[in-house]
Amino acid sequence: MELNKDNYCVIMAGGIGSRFWPMSRTDRPKQFLDVMGFGESLLQMTYHRFEKICPKDNIYIVTSELYRNIVIEQLDGIREDRILCEPARRNTAPCITYANFRILKDNPNANIIVAPSDHLILKEDIFLSIIQKALKVAKENDILITLGIRPSYPNTGYGYIQFDNTDGLKSDIEFKKVKLFTEKPNKEMAQMFIDSGDFLWNAGIFVWSLHSINKALNDLLPEIYNAFSQGKDLMGTDKEIEFINETYTSCQSISIDYGVMEKASNVYVMPSDFGWSDVGTWKALYEVRGKDDNGNSTIGKNVMTYSSTNNVITIDDNKLAVIQGLDDYIVVDSKNVLLICKKDEEQRVKQFLTDVEVQKGKEYL
Amino acid sequence: MELNKDNYCVIMAGGIGSRFWPMSRTDRPKQFLDVMGFGESLLQMTYHRFEKICPKDNIYIVTSELYRNIVIEQLDGIREDRILCEPARRNTAPCITYANFRILKDNPNANIIVAPSDHLILKEDIFLSIIQKALKVAKENDILITLGIRPSYPNTGYGYIQFDNTDGLKSDIEFKKVKLFTEKPNKEMAQMFIDSGDFLWNAGIFVWSLHSINKALNDLLPEIYNAFSQGKDLMGTDKEIEFINETYTSCQSISIDYGVMEKASNVYVMPSDFGWSDVGTWKALYEVRGKDDNGNSTIGKNVMTYSSTNNVITIDDNKLAVIQGLDDYIVVDSKNVLLICKKDEEQRVKQFLTDVEVQKGKEYL
Fold first, then answer.
1. Rounded to whole angstroms, how far apart are CA atoms A2 and A349?
2. Which of A155, A187, A237, A343 has the highest CB neighbour number within 10 Å of its CB?
3. Are the beta carbons of A336 and B318 separated by less than 8 Å?
4. Does A329 touch chain B (CB under 8 A)?
5. Which residues of A, range 272-311, sit inside 8 Å of B by Cβ?
6. SS3 A357
7. Phi, psi at B45, each rounded to 5°
8. A349 near A365, Cβ under 8 Å?
9. In terms of DSSP bridges, do strands B7-12 and B111-116 run parallel, antiparallel, or are they unpaired?
10. Residue of A nearest to B342 (CA)
11. Measured between CB atoms, does B357 come within 8 Å of chain A?
């Protein structure tokens, strides 16, 4: 099957994955790791997934200069000019705007998928057919599409999207009008969301035409839009990097969700279920990874467990771990760091990181 | 103070310390490790302790050929011919007999202390004054002296010595006649021992004249005695090693406790208290090591604990460990092995070792 030359993809790969420390490290964060033990990093899985829909040269990776070489190493044969390097971290709106102007130079008729590099999608066939549908309606309508996941339990770590079940796109009723984006709810609120039936998990995967997203950016984030617009003729030239380095650093740091999606009136969501997880925490990773009969999820060639249950264990292959009498813990032995932490206390990992930086230095981050 | 030229010491350093795996490894067992974090190995502490009583050249180390180089490295300036290498493990009776014949060649009037290399003695002054007394009575009497520790609690991991409080040496009433050696008791039995007041822990530290121990060996273990006796003229010559290699391997494997002390009629014990521990298990080590306010005993330059109590933690200095929510565990990260085990389950370490050897290979032992 020939791939549609107007299909484009922007994969955001600039995150630092600090919640996965010490497996995720400053010099090689989560998206570059095989956190599932599948033999591919999350970025590689993401890239290969979109290769089935977009011509290879239409896939852009936005990342940090720090990670350019890892991207080249992991994505065999990627054109180096498809790797866009952010000179500073400014959240997703500037990142997407930059990619838009690069794509504009290449193809003003582009229809674009924007996706994180570090999420997991288990039901790829369903996902790809949803994406195909979304690309089609995005091409035919001036709308902004976000994918919403039917929630299976009251997760308090995700943002939620409320949709209007009675108001869908005429051309495809599966795409529902978005009423509200919400921040991470508390437990009671999350349960109410689930019970209501009209709330979805916000997967942070967007589909739109280049025309529609640029129009929305121009309307809702004009400063950012104009800043990049001034350099549109420099895109793809020798002067691009210099321009970006200047423009980017002076940009407001703001997410596309907050800056555009929550404010725009033409946002639609397609409720779906394609085995998605943001694998955002050790516990989330535990949920999606395979487990042995004792409920232990183990990565590492040499892990021996005794009277141990429901742990998530990640050990470097050159190391042997013997673990006895542990229930419901995270155990990570990665290079120069060992972490042992109760699974229910995983939110403390960020605090540990801060303490480590202050007390022990950057070599352990 | 000039040291008595008849004072000799035999330090037994051939053990493999498997209960301290993975800190203790086949190629560097417990006696060569700084398990206390004092900056010296147990062997070094033992050696330096006896240097205060015996001329340096009168201190012999019996060990395995495997560990000869570690002994040389750790005991600065030791004469290489003071390191006696066992060609095979045959327990303590052959080891002591070998040393006796080496010392006999040097000084038939020797009075000898025999001590393990891997025990801890915290009250060194008291210990040394007891040893001085014991050397004196051993010189003047044809007796075999063992040091007995006044028990502070019903330990089930030690052997016990029952003594006769009414029957002591005429020349020094502190030395009591031994009635019985016992194996490790169960909990109830150990409590009975304590309550009786006439049981002591068997520390495995002996004092005797060369004359008395050789007479006892000749009486009670004549095969072993005669085997070594045949080579007495070869001791200290080029032919010693060849002779020992042959003799040793064909020797019965038997302990001095079982072969001599339990059978001899001239055994005396001096009840004492010099802060002794055989540091035989992780739990025993935990008891004697320093602890922080949370009861954690930690060795390692980079260990950070959160909500963790009563653990014994040993981490290589080049590694950072962050440990949260752990109570009453052993955590050891040593070279290519990580061990996490409940302190109360420490007896399982031997089983782990067997499993590791079978399933993973000798590189982790």
1. 46
2. A155
3. yes
4. yes
5. 302, 304, 306-307
6. helix
7. -60, -40
8. no
9. parallel
10. A325
11. no
Sign of dihedral through CA atoms A235, A237, A243, A248? Answer: positive
Q: How far is CA A42 from the centre of its chain?
A: 10
Partners of B337 on chain A (C-beta within 8 Å) are 319-322
Pairing of strands B7-12, B59-64: parallel
Nearest CA in chain A to B350: A322
Coil, helix or strand at residue A363: helix
Backbone angles phi, psi at A238, to 5 degrees: -60, -25
Convert the pLDDT of each residue in B179-217 to its tens digit: 999 989 999 999 999 999 999 999 999 999 999 999 999
Compute the half-sphere exposure of residue A116: CA atoms within 13 Å on the CB side of its CA: 25
CA nearest A269: which of A192, A193, A169? A169
Q: How confident is the model at residue A131 (pLDDT cuts 50, 70, 90)?
A: very high
* Structure token digits, residue B237: 């010559």
pLDDT digits (tens, 9 = 90+) for B115-170: 999 999 999 999 999 999 999 999 999 999 999 999 999 999 899 999 998 989 99
Tell me which residue in B323, B345, B360 faces A340 most closely, judged by beta carbons: B323
How many of the other CB atoms lie within 10 Å of CB of B361?
A: 11
Record: contact B324-A352, CB cut-off 8 A: yes
Q: 């290519």: which residue's tokens?
A: B336
Going from the C-alpha of A41 to that of each of A13, A35, A113, A298, B40, the distances in angstroms are: 12, 7, 20, 16, 45
Sign of the four-CA dihedral B186, B188, B190, B193: negative
Please, how many CA atoms are within 13 Å of residue B297, restricted to the half-sphere of its CB?
18
Q: Which two tokens stand for residue A234?
A: 């420099």
Separation between Cα atoms, residue B191 and residue A219, nearest integer Å: 84
Whether B166 contacts chain A with CB within 8 A: no
Res A18: pLDDT:
86
Across B324-332, average pLDDT: 98
ipTM above 0.85, yes or no: yes
Q: What is the pLDDT of residues A7-29, one digit of tens each?
A: 999 999 998 888 899 999 999 99
**Which ranges in chain B belong to alpha helices (H)?**
42-50, 68-74, 92-106, 124-140, 187-196, 210-220, 222-229, 240-249, 256, 282-288, 349-359
- Per the DSSP assignment, residues forming a β-bridge with A112 are A8, A208
- Nearest residue, CB atoms, B342 vs list A324, A338, A342: A324
Encoding tokens for residue A17?
């994955």
pLDDT at residue B44 tops 90 = yes
For residues B60 and B83, what is the distance between their CA atoms, to the nearest angstrom?
Answer: 6
Q: Do B340 and A324 touch (CB under 8 A)?
A: yes
For residues B300 and B193, what is the distance between their CA atoms, to the nearest angstrom? 38
Instruction: Respond yes or no on whether the N-terminal peptide bond of residue A94 is cis (omega within 30° of 0).
Output: no
The structure's pTM equals 0.88
- The β-bridge partners of B323 are A340, B305
Which residues, at least 6 apart from A70, have a Cβ–Cβ distance to it below 8 Å?
A28, A32
Four-point Cα dihedral A178, A183, A185, A190, nearest 10: 20
H/E stretch holding B204: strand B199-209
| CB contacts, 8 Å: A342 with chain B | 324-325
For B76-105, the DSSP string reads TT--GGGEEEESS---HHHHHHHHHHHHHH
Report CA-CA distances (Å) from A268 to A138, A179, A208: 10, 9, 10
R_g of chain B, CA atoms, integer Å? 21
- Phi-psi group of A348: left, alpha or beta (phi > 0 → left; psi -120 to 50 → alpha; rest → beta): alpha
Phi/psi for B335 (5° steps) reads 50, -120
